[in-house]
Amino acid sequence: MQTIFAPMSNASQKPSIENTQLKDIVSHAKEYGFVFPSSEIYDGLAAVYDYGPNGVELKNNLKRLWWLAMTQLHQNIVGLDAAIFMHPLTWHASGHVAGFNDPLIDNLDSKKRYRADVLLEDKAAEYEAAGQQDRAADLLATMGKLLTDNDLAGVKELIVSEKITCPVSGTANWTDVRQFNLMYSTQGSAVEGDAAQIYLRPETAQGIFVNFLNVQKSARLKVPFGIAQIGKAFRNEIVARQFIFRMREFEQMEMQFFIRPGTEMEWYDTWKQARRRFHEAVGLAPEKLRYHDHDKLAHYANAAVDIEYEFPFGFKEIEGIHSRTDFDLTQHQELSKKKQQYFDNDINPETGKPYGNYVPYVVETSVGADRLFLATLCQAYTEETITEGEGEKEQTKQRTLLKLHPALAPIKAAIFPLVRKDGMPEKAEEIFNALRYDFCVIMEERDAIGKRYTRQDLIGTPFCIVVDGQTLEDDTVTVRHRDSREQTRMPISELRAYIGEAVSFSRLFEKL
Ligand code: GAP
């Protein structure tokens, strides 16, 4: 949910506690090269993370899937890659300079800073956990009204009257509540002063709005049409927690769909369904996904819904779908003094004349690449008990694996010579060379075969190809499947088609 103008409300959510499963996932992500804390040798930078060798592959696969699902699969959606820096007036027009704020409060004893609304939401969650649903709802309603009225003194009074204390100092020695703008700014030129102040974009959407006519004209598009973009966004989040769920530098995948005014509810519904299908196709369990309609709409929106995923810390937003009316384009028209209109020469059946000139309405779909990554990782992370060996040698053991869809897995296949002799490494290298043009594959010779399987399970590699004595005689290999651990013998000549079918995006696209 975007903070702009509308107070945050997490009424139906569990308290934001880091639970054991999240801790396991965070350490797994670090140990196996998915996500590292930024500049860790200097003790890290809060809410900023780096993607490691496996993380970048998984994230790129998710981004590529989204990109193709938006652009390649639709004749009327095209891509854009706008700059992060934009003319400062952009952010005045969008309302971010005036309204992209969170209410913050400091504790004078601990010197710790908090989001005032989060302190109150956590208190409400405590009431809920104690079975006092009405009290929780009353508290949230009071807070919502105070924030809507921008009554910051009232918010402080509420914190004090609820006897909320700082978790670090244990005291209620609070400063006044004040609004804190989430945009990062920097100097746009060598000359200091207001005019030179530019912002790091807090959403990618505005790059699409200001290019609406450039794209429409150059790509000769007719309404309805969409513009899709993937890019970095920056927000100076006060509360940074839950790993890569809330970051200060993150990536968004946004699509603005430009439509005829009056058709917005139909398109809003279409995209609401389509985006949920996408998340299910990626592999997120249907029962872990839900819609959350916004109770309070930002003043430019006439409908807004979040798609939430059940993370280990509760149901939280991964994507927002907003019917943004003509708010953004009209604002840009006013501040830039450049018409942001489209001439619609389709015939209006009611008048028998063309629809003519209008500022299009917009339905936006906006998903965080990092949140989708985290949801995918949480969904894939599996700990299970397995039985190995037969008869007297049978033993049970625990294994951890990532059940990623093969199309998303960082590495598609690992090729192992059973032993490092008898020509097996050479044969494995031959297979590696034959597959590497099509797929991300690796070759591993070290350690016992069981250990090598375990390493690949931990990073979600769907197939392990083993070269053994029989391979040298008949050019067949065993293919071991990550989830079932079953092994299939097949000719080397069939590997490309077999892996290609399993890792193809086509199987995912069919579900959209
Ligand atoms: N253009 C609309 C917009 O920016 P938003 O709900 O503020 O709306 C859209 O953000 C998506 O961006 C969210 O659903 C979330 O996935 C992602 N997102 C927002 N803030 C984020 C943060 N601090 N860290 C990671 N992802 C974030």
Topology readout:
Elements: H1 20-31, E1 35-37, E2 49-51, H2 53-70, E3 77-79, H3 89-93, H4 96-99, E4 101-106, E5 113-115, H5 116-129, H6 133-148, H7 152-161, E6 178-181, E7 185-187, E8 197-199, H8 205-210, H9 212-218, E9 225-234, E10 249-259, H10 264-282, E11 289-293, E12 303-311, E13 314-323, H11 327-336, E14 342-348, E15 353-358, E16 361-368, H12 369-380, E17 381-388, E18 395-402, E19 413-417, H13 424-435, E20 441-443, H14 449-459, E21 463-467, H15 469-474, E22 476-481, E23 487-491, H16 495-503, H17 506-509
Parallel strand pairs: 3-9, 19-20, 19-21
Antiparallel strand pairs: 1-2, 4-5, 4-6, 7-8, 9-10, 10-16, 11-12, 12-13, 13-16, 14-15, 17-18, 21-22, 22-23
Helix pairs in contact: 2-12, 5-6, 5-7
Bound molecules: glycyl-adenosine-5'-phosphate (GAP).
Glycyl-adenosine-5'-phosphate (GAP) is lined by residues 1-2, 203, 205, 235, 237, 246-247, 250, 252, 254, 317-320, 364, 366-368, 370-371.
Characterization of this structure:
A seven-stranded mixed β-sheet has the order 3-9-10-16-13-12-11, sandwiched between helices. Strands 20-19-21-22-23 form a five-stranded mixed β-sheet, with helices on both faces. A three-stranded antiparallel β-sheet has the order 5-4-6. Helix 2 (53-70) crosses helix 12, helix 5 (116-129) packs antiparallel against helix 6 (133-148) and helix 5 (116-129) runs parallel beside helix 7 (152-161). The chain is 34% helix and 26% strand. It is an alpha+beta fold and 512 residues long. It binds glycyl-adenosine-5'-phosphate (GAP). Glycyl-adenosine-5'-phosphate binds next to strand 10, strand 13, strand 16 and helix 12.
